[in-house]
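REVIEWER CHECKLIST
Item 1: Sequence provided? yes
Item 2: Single chain? yes
Item 3: Sequence as submitted:
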Amino acid sequence: MRRSEKIKVTLITRWGSDTGFGHIQRMAALLWHCRAGQRVSPYLLHSEIPDFFPGPLKEMASPAGKADLIVRDMRDSTVEEMEELRKQGPVVALDDLGPGSGRADVQINLLPMPDSEPAARDRAVPECFLYGYGFLSSLERVGGKPLPREVDFAFYPGDGGDEYISFVLSLLPPKASCVVLGRKGPRLFRKGAFVESPGLKEYAETLLTARVVISHFGITLYEARAAGCEVVSLNPTDYHSRLSDRAPLALNMLNLGTRESIRKEEAAALLKSRLASAREERADPKKVLEDVRSRLDAFCAFLAGSYERYGHSF
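Item 4: Structure as written out by the authors:
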């Protein structure tokens, strides 16, 4: 293949209540980034299309097709599945914990592994980290004007209900403001109660104007750190908490443990301290967007290099 020719890349992933939406969010970001003419030409291999896909991304999804390279973005490969995929082309296994990962042509870790094996660390490629489509697309709409940090906290409760949301809000300093993200849309909490705020911003702008972000371990905390926030994890499981403990030092992540094990007084004191340490007064959306795009470019270059190395044997 000449270097000017497109490399067709099949993206395989899942989303939903059992796997969350981080994997599909970052694959959607890759699709969005490549839609305008990268050498890497990806499409999502799936019979369904996520509800949040806009028109241009829907055109980049297909239930079948032939590709030069396959990217499998899930944690749970089997040996049998990987061997079947390799019959179709070279496979890049992304953040894969399954027994089939060793059969892939290329293994790459963008997220920490819940073990500390040296091999897992050696596969880490932080310069290729992929943020989500929601973050990327909303960053593109924000514009380049610096934004003031107007809100103390932003909180993403994941699948936590109203009782969990109330509990976390009770941990915050009494005068703190907080935007709660989630299924009900962004809601502003201030001085002990939710208040009307018709000017609430979309996702990226919420992160860019917050000082501290609280969420379970996942892509949201990486996006928050990219936006210049201090980040705090509070997790539904020990698995998520272990991942928090193994997060890159650059995230400066405060791990409060799990919902079951958290100690209220200690957590409240830690959150107050973390808010006091958040000294950045303004965010630079242009700089953040450049960083997000540069990592997508690096990931595309990684895929192109993987094809150049392994594609000739298929």
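Item 5: Key structural point noted by reviewer: The CA atoms of residues 138 and 218 lie 18 Å apart.
Item 6: Recommendation: ____
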